[in-house]
Specification:
By secondary structure, the protein is mainly alpha-helical. It has one domain (16-130). It is 70% helix and 0% strand. The chain has four helices and no strands. It has helices at 9-12, 18-47, 67-98, 105-130. The termini are far apart.
Length: 131
């Protein structure tokens, strides 16, 4: 049976927006990869405490984070990123189907702020190790 003769709304309702849905899926996969990478990076950071002598990892009075805590923070942020990716995929999918999608600057700025804070913590940790 040719595609033009099929009228099942659930199967072909999105024919004109397939590209949008595929872009949404690619974005979801990118967010998921980012989350998984952050979790892996968290494990690497947490394992750093075994490379350096125990006294070099004592938290200084300046409040710089211990490697295990920084690694845990990265892992938690990575997990939350994966959860957020699934939620965001679903929301965008729904908006695309309803033809009322509006991009969100706050999502990008919020995630960027989290990454900047984590980067500052890593820089502080590395400065602490080099002293």
């Amino acid at each position: 049976m040719p595609l033009e003769s099929q009228t099942n709304d659930h199967t072909f309702a999105d024919d004109t927006r397939v590209g949008d849905h595929l872009a949404n899926e690619r974005t979801y996969l990118a967010w998921t990869r980012t989350g998984i990478s952050a979790m892996g990076f968290g494990i690497v950071i947490a394992r750093l405490r075994y490379i350096f002598p125990p006294n070099s990892l004592q938290p200084p009075s300046s409040g710089i984070v211990h490697a295990a805590n920084l690694g845990l923070l990265f892992t938690v942020i990575g997990l939350l990123t994966v959860v957020f990716a699934a939620w965001r995929f679903r929301e965008v999918r729904s908006a695309l189907r309803k033809r009322n999608y509006v991009s969100s600057l706050s999502v990008v700025m919020g995630f960027s702020a989290v990454i900047v804070v984590l980067g500052i913590l890593i820089i502080g940790y590395l400065v602490r190790l080099s002293v």
